[in-house]
Design brief:
- The complex is a heterodimer of chains A (237) and B (203).
- Chain A has 237 residues and is of the alpha/beta class.
- Chain A contains five helices and eleven strands; from the N terminus they run βββββαββαβαβαβαβ.
- With 203 residues, chain B is mostly beta strands.
- Chain B has a domain of 138 residues: Sulfite Oxidase, Chain A, domain 2 (Alpha-Beta Complex), CATH 3.90.420.
- The chains are: A alpha/beta (237), B mainly beta (203).
- At the A-B interface, β4, β6, α5 and β11 of A face α3 of B.
Chain lengths: 237, 203
Amino acid sequence: MTAPAGGWRTATVAGLRRPIARSVELRLDVHDRVDHLPGQHYVVRLTAEDGYTAQRSYSVASAPGDPLVELFVERLDDGEVSTYLADVVEPGDELEVRGPIGGWFVWDGATPALLVGGGSGVVPLVAMVRHARALGRLDLLRVAVSARTLAELPYADELVEAGALIALTREAHGIRPAARLTDMDLLPLWEPGQTAYVCGSAGFAESASQLLVGLGLPPASVRVERFGPSALELPKR
Amino acid sequence: MPGPTRGFLGRRRAAGDPRLPPGQYDAGSDWPVLTAEPTPRIAPETWTITVDGEVETPTTWTWDEAHALPSSEYRGDIHCVTTWSKFDTRFGGISVDSLLELARPTAEGRFVMATSKTGYTTNLPIEDVTGGKAWLVWEFDGKPLTAEHGGPVRMLVPHLYFWKSAKWISRITVLKRDQPGFWEQNGYHDRGDPWKQQRYQGD
């Protein structure tokens, strides 16, 4: 399968929402758009008056059938692009975007998949859930997501409604006490033949992918997308 | 070129630092980890590197045999397609030249495919891995390279975007014709020169 790829486009900000603190959901009308597959991302490029540019990648949260492209942007305090998108952008603004991009972390809408996301790493998984719902194939997906609290989990309502296992590290959720995602959380979700999609911070993705391999998933069936700074100890320089 | 983005001032610009390719930012002391697969744990005693394909003497080296080759160090900058760059890195290992001089590519061998233990692949013109431009490294800053960063041994091709520097390197196959590797099949550029912003196919 070759995933779709699009070049630079102009997008008009059709709307935005801020349901989660320190983040924004941007709804973009991408002119002349190439439809994405769930899991792909877009690059947003900002240009200053003097021609200086900065660009970053953001996962698409919307399903391919959505007339708009929805990007979820977590605001990083020292982020150059995310602070602009979260604090400055208004409906009607035009943004330069490029996408869809990425041919590996994509779900085709037809094969069984185990989705495991942490924090804003749930965003490409939400696109998969929305696509499955539109196709009437939510039965293909098993979903486990993790965040500190429910209030900090992007798209929490939709994920709960889709039957996702919700692992919160700072508060209980239903009968599940506050705890990191464990192999016992994932074991009931695993079925042979699934492709696993793991997305989150470097630390989350590392630990979740190792849990899956430990449960017996073939490493070749585990697709990983990591973002953000490394959570690893770095040598002092 | 489109016009400026309304209200965007830009605050990262590293005062025109000539080490920073276009579209990149200085990651400072951080070193992000980006991989598409679970991190494999490979014991150095079991690691080997094979050079095969269009070579006169296909050869496999063990950890000890690779360490017996002349050591070589890279000091300088690295650049990731996800837009971070890291300045003044120091990697220790051997030059890819040391391996190819022993395996001897044929006159027809014009490209290489680097393959990881995980099955990850990336393709390069042979000129990009010869002439002192590419290494196999097992040390970062004088310490063993961690598994997350490709240890025990990764390839290092620092003049190209870092996805070309295959982690957990296990094989270098010399080819007559170019073939796309893992990311190159998935939308990324065949060469990946950061100074030309060759990020995606078509750039």
